[in-house]
Write a structure and sequence with these properties.
- The complex is a heterodimer of chains A (about 270) and B (about 325).
- Helix content of chain A is about 70%, strand content about 0%.
- With about 270 residues, chain A is mostly helical.
- In chain A, helix 3 crosses helix 8.
- The longest helix of chain A has 27 residues.
- The longest helix of chain B has 18 residues.
- Chain B has ten helices and 13 strands.
- A six-stranded mixed β-sheet of chain B has the order 5-6-7-3-8-9, sandwiched between helices.
- Classes of the chains: A mainly alpha (about 270), B alpha/beta (about 325).
- Chains A and B meet through helix 1 and helix 5 of A and helix 2, strand 5 and helix 3 of B.
Chain lengths: ~270, ~325
């Protein structure tokens, strides 16, 4: 417990240091923040334009798609801000920085995640929150739906965190695999921005049981919208996001520990 | 400088680390080769010792240091540092040791030195008064006063190295590991660094283990040398003994008044002639006095000097066995 507190405190300290460092160039900081907000804003505009020629996408109207979009965007952007720099692990191996991290009394994963913490990513989170907020009125809110929505965001962030770590850990073996990791993290979140009904059953199955990104937003959103799964999954699956997150945490822990034990460092 | 050794601070027994190297041959065939980077390595280091760990490139120096600091997991044998198994209890060990890698920094590149130090104070939970005392002392000894507010990326190599060493010592570690600490430094920086490390060992009793290519580091700092080659120790003992081991020779440099044919004396032979200057090689264990007398009696000598065996030559000799 004391260890966990020390780890969290260390994360906050390292992150705060990077925030301070980035604020020493305020112009650059604000350009990047606003720029990031605009770029991500345009991202949803693309979907909005699409609805000028169609009424529904896979049976879902624009606002419902916005709900799905926001529900994956918020946890993804949060995870990206908090732990996204873990994907730089290959670079840290090559530069020897990882060696230095391993000789400090803070878990290496914490140091990696907090490294070059970027507060400006708040802009991207804000965009996802805005899209989600626009979709909120279409949900018939009940206390249990509020609960599911909260657990959806938390579980979603945990799921993305695990996916980030698992695919980044591959770089312990092949240092240049960061693009491979990106395909699953950034690529995965793009898939979940759309209703699963536009994909084939095989893709949906893989996104449920192999790389369980459908639990980030698809299943809980079905509950928020009072729908059953068009592909026939049992109704309880709509509440299973925390379970999926838990399974991934176990898997991630095993993969990470194996990675660290097999770390070979650099030549010199 | 002799310290009473109670129980070993570093204990290494039959330590080994293999690396599996895969190489592709053709489209389908793959060959796997096991490289024994370190094998059958055993030594002990007592509290307060200053040990030089030397060997050619690829001999296993860094691999050993990385196993001692918990970065690499050994594939065989036993290793304890301050009673801790390094790779299993890395974070616990981190509080007891300091590590400096000469070729890279563990400071935060974009941040002023002061911020890096302050962050270390907090993640190592260093008590404020102890931190202030240490900081003041290291800033003074390492001459960091004007550099504290400079971002690390703007520091010169020598300045950065001093910063790195201060950073590694803020939490009062009992052992300091230095991997090539003087690499790339100019002569003056090297000298100051050595002076600092000597003082650290004398005043605080900090145990030092350093790898280096620069044998002057060893001569200036280490009572004891471990030579590693092909992954295992080929020599472990005091520097003097290392000199004697190599079957080394000393050199008498004679400056004659005029140019002359090579000097002929018993017990030495001329290895080089350059104008009036001649170099005579003789066994390291022999006395130079009779030789000097012979030369002075037979020739007009302007000046004389004696060169000690070059440790580099001794080690080269050791590797070639």
């Amino acid at each position: 417990m004391a260890d966990a507190l020390h780890a969290v405190r260390s994360y906050a300290l390292i992150a705060a240091l990077w925030v301070r460092a980035s604020l020493t160039y305020p112009v650059s900081f604000w350009t990047m923040t606003v720029g990031g907000l605009l770029v991500t804003f345009l991202d949803f505009v693309g979907i909005w334009f699409m609805f000028h020629t169609i009424d529904t996408l896979g049976g879902f109207p624009l606002r419902e798609v916005a709900l799905l979009y926001g529900a994956t965007g918020i946890p993804f952007r949060i995870a990206d801000m908090l732990v996204g720099s873990v994907e730089k692990i290959g670079q840290k191996v090559r530069s020897g920085e990882l060696d230095a991290m391993m000789t400090k009394p803070v878990p290496v994963l914490v140091q990696l995640c907090a490294d070059r913490f970027e507060l400006r990513r708040l802009g991207q989170i804000a965009q996802a929150v805005a899209v989600f907020a626009w979709a909120v009125p279409i949900v018939d809110w009940t206390p249990s739906r509020v609960l599911v929505a909260v657990s959806m965001v938390v579980s979603g962030a945990v799921i993305f965190f695990c996916v980030f770590v698992i695919f980044s850990t591959i770089q312990f073996w092949t240092v240049d695999a960061s693009e491979f990791a990106n395909a699953f993290t950034y690529g995965g979140t793009t898939l979940t921005q759309y209703p699963m009904t536009i994909f084939t059953k095989e893709i949906v199955k893989s996104l449920s049981y192999v790389l369980p990104l459908a639990f980030v937003n698809w299943y809980p959103c079905l509950y928020l919208l009072g729908r059953s799964d068009p592909y026939g999954a049992a109704d309880w699956v709509r509440f299973a996001s925390p379970l999926a997150a838990g399974v991934l945490v176990v898997l991630m822990t095993v993969v990470w520990r194996t990675g660290v034990r097999h770390y070979r460092s650099t030549g010199s | 400088m002799s310290h009473t050794v109670t129980e070993p601070l570093i204990e290494v027994r039959d330590l080994g680390r293999d690396f599996t190297v895969r190489s592709r041959r053709g489209v389908f065939r793959r060959t796997t080769r096991v490289v024994h980077a370190v094998h059958d390595l055993s030594f002990e280091v007592g509290a307060g010792e200053m040990v030089g760990y030397i060997g050619p490139n690829g001999a296993g120096k860094s691999t050993t240091i990385k196993m001692l600091t918990g970065i690499l997991v050994p594939t065989g044998g036993h290793v304890r540092v301050a009673g801790i198994e390094p790779s299993r209890h890395r974070r616990e060990l981190a509080r007891r040791i300091g590590v400096v890698f000469g070729q890279r920094t563990s400071l935060w590149w974009d941040l002023p030195l002061r911020d890096s130090f302050d962050l270390l104070r907090r993640i190592y939970d260093i008590a404020p008064e102890r931190y202030e005392r240490n900081l003041q002392e290291y800033v003074e000894l390492l001459d960091l006063g004007d550099l504290l507010d400079t971002p690390v990326r703007q520091l010169s190599l020598g300045q950065r190295m001093r910063g790195d060493i201060a950073a590694a010592l803020l939490h009062d570690p009992g052992i300091l590991f230095l991997d090539e600490p003087t690499i790339g430094l100019d002569v003056i920086s090297k000298g100051r660094l050595r002076e600092f490390l000597r003082a650290l060992n004398a005043e605080r009793g900090t145990t030092l283990v350093l790898t280096t290519h620069d044998l002057q580091d060893i001569e200036a700092l280490c009572d004891r040398v471990i030579v590693i080659d092909h992954g295992t120790a080929v020599f472990d003992g005091p520097l003097d003994k290392l000199r004697a081991t190599g079957g080394a020779s000393r050199t008498l440099v004679v400056d004659l008044v005029d140019e002359a044919d090579p000097i002929t004396v018993t017990g030495a032979e001329v290895v080089k002639v350059d104008g009036p200057r001649q170099w005579l090689s003789f066994p390291a264990e022999a006395s130079a006095a009779p030789l000097v007398a012979q030369v002075a009696a037979a020739y007009d000598v302007a000046d004389l000097s004696i060169q000690e065996p070059e440790i580099e030559g001794v080690i080269r000799e050791l590797y070639s066995r």
